[in-house]
Specification:
Number of helices: 12
Low-confidence stretches: 1-14
Strand content: 15-25%
Radius of gyration: 20 Å
Number of strands: 10
Structural class: alpha/beta
Largest sheet: 10 strands, mixed
Order of helices and strands: HEHEHEHHEEEHEHEHEHHEHH
């Protein structure tokens, strides 16, 4: 990574950085702590299960010094409230992503762009490498919560309540496509060619069932775990966003932990990532045939047509005015290396 890029991003406060730099010893743990985790995800979502793996490993490695209470299914906060709740200290940890962080960090909208990443390897090399570390520290400085890594959610695809192939962006004209309710998510839907319709995840099944929206975009694993396939008739594999969720901790909570506790938390994050990534990769390999067995039609999009349309839409719009194009070039260069 260029020295100029590192200098620009490493202005983040070292009081809230993921680098504990200490190997934990049991006697160094300090006072016991209880961490509250708030998730919108349903309990059967892979990333919710991965958070349970995080809980298991953190509690086991700490010998009970760290207790993790996990609340799924929007029991504590809605999807729109989670980031504010964790940043404000009403909860300690959530799973978020760039699309939920753009209000406080407009520059991070680059990581919400469709087709920025060309594969899982490209995404994880970027966000779990040096670029990710500096990006996460910058978010912590600006917003009061620190992402500790990126877990693979899956590649987002488009599924509809009608049997319709979405081959090119023109096929989405007039389609009311549910998107999460942030400007970044809605812009992605617009860039794809749809009429983006904001709706909380917890309301989506009923909206699909009643036809309030025509369709939605989510990874195949979420379509299965949330049972959206019960109220849909077709899926088009657009691969428009290689999606990830970021386990993020309140900065005051993080600062209050001992180095030994931080080390255990980081090990638990990695255990959660291993579970989440491997499970979702396997699901993506298996679920197309499952959905076909359930009676859904599966179509392949013209990826090249979508890539050109979507990236042109971003780069020729005000949303990219806040992007650091040096970072953009670094991400693109990593993608070229991954494809070799």
């Amino acid at each position: 990574m260029k020295k100029k890029l590192l200098a620009a991003l490493l202005t983040a406060s070292m009081a809230c950085t993921m680098f504990a730099g200490v190997t934990a010893q049991a006697e160094d743990l300090g006072d016991p702590v209880t961490l509250t985790v708030t998730l919108t995800a349903v309990s059967t979502d892979t990333h919710a299960e991965a958070m349970m793996k995080f809980k298991e490993v953190a509690e086991e490695l700490s010998g009970g010094n760290i207790t993790v209470d996990v609340y799924t299914d929007a029991q504590l906060f809605s999807q729109e409230e989670e980031v504010t709740a964790v940043a404000g200290g009403d909860a300690d940890i959530t799973l978020t992503s760039a699309s939920w962080l753009t209000t406080g960090s407009p520059w991070i909208s680059m990581f919400t762009a469709g087709y920025l990443f060309n594969s899982y390897d490209h995404m994880t090399t970027t966000l779990n490498g040096e670029i990710g570390k500096t990006v996460f520290d910058k978010v912590a400085e600006e917003q009061g919560l620190l992402p500790l890594g990126a877990w693979y959610l899956g590649s987002r695809e488009i599924s509809l309540g009608q049997d319709k192939a979405i081959t090119t962006p023109e096929d989405l004209n007039g389609i009311n496509l549910r998107m999460p309710n942030t400007d970044a998510w809605l812009f992605l839907g617009e860039a794809m060619g749809a009429n983006p319709t904001p709706l909380s995840f917890s309301e989506l099944y009923l909206a699909l069932q009643t036809g309030t929206v025509d369709g939605q975009d989510n990874p195949l694993g979420t379509v299965e775990s949330a049972k959206f396939y019960e109220v849909q008739k077709s899926i088009t594999l657009t691969h428009h966003l290689v999606d990830s969720v970021w386990p993020a901790v309140n900065c005051d909570t993080w600062a209050s932990l001992t180095d030994a506790q931080k080390d255990i938390i980081l090990q638990a994050v990695e255990a959660g990532r291993d579970y989440c990534d491997s499970t979702n990769i396997q699901k993506e390999a298996d679920l197309v045939s499952f959905f076909e067995e359930q009676g859904l039609a599966i179509y392949e999009a013209d990826i090249a047509a979508f890539q050109e349309h979507v990236m042109d839409y971003y780069l020729n719009n005000d949303i990219s005015a806040d992007w650091d194009m040096a970072v953009y070039d670094e991400v693109a260069a990593l993608g070229a290396e991954v494809l070799k």
